[in-house]
Amino acid sequence: MKRFIATALLAGLTSTAFAAPVVYQLDPSHTYPSFELSHMGFSIQNGRFDKSSGTITLDAEKKTGSVDISIDTRSLNSGWEKRDAHVKGPDFFNTEKFPAMTFKSNKLVFEGDKLVAVDGNFTLLGVTKPLTLVVSNFKCDMHPMMKKPACGANASATIKRSEFGMSTYVPNIGDDVKLSIAVEAVQK
C-alpha cells in the first residue's frame, strides 16, 4: 500500500511539473531580428539587429504563454557603415533617444499543437501599437548540444513605419517594412 501511495504521489508531482509554465531565455547567438523595405522601387533592402534579449514563457499543456523581447536598435547592421550611421540617426531609429524597440505579448495562438501566431504590442520610437507575429516554424525539444529544453521559431509581420513616427523619405523609401525574427531560446 505504501508503495502504491508513493508511486501515485510521484506520478502526480511529475505531471504537475510538466504542466507548469517554463521560462526560456533568448539565445543571442541564434536570435536574429531583421527587416526589409523598398529602396525607391529599385530593390528590397535588408538589415538586421545584432543584439536582442528577452524571455518566452510557455505552458505547452494549456497552450498559453508570454513573450518579452527587446531589440537593441544601436546594433543595426545593414552591411554599410555610412548607411547604418544615417539610419541610427534622428531621421529613422533615433537610437540615442530610443535605444530599444520591444515586443510584448500574453497571447499565443495555437491551431492544435502548432503555434501559428503571437498577438502583442510593438513599441518603436516610443509609440506602441498592436502587432500580430505570424509564426511559420515552431519547435520545442531537448537541445542536443546544450542538453536543456529549448524552443525556436520564425515569425514575421509587416508594419507601416510612418505610423510609428518614422516617415522620412516616404514613399521613396518604403513605408511598408517587413519584420522577421528567427528566435531560439533555452530553458532558464
Automatic annotation (TrEMBL):
UniProt keyword Signal, yes or no: yes
Domain Lipid/polyisoprenoid-binding YceI-like: 23-186
Name of the protein this chain belongs to: YceI family protein
Species name: Iodobacter arcticus
Keywords: Signal
Keyword Transmembrane annotated: no
Domain of life: Bacteria
Classification of source organism: Bacteria, Pseudomonadati, Pseudomonadota, Betaproteobacteria, Neisseriales
Family annotation (Gene3D superfamilies): Lipid/polyisoprenoid-binding, YceI-like
Pfam families associated with the record: YceI
Signal peptide range in chain numbering: 1-19
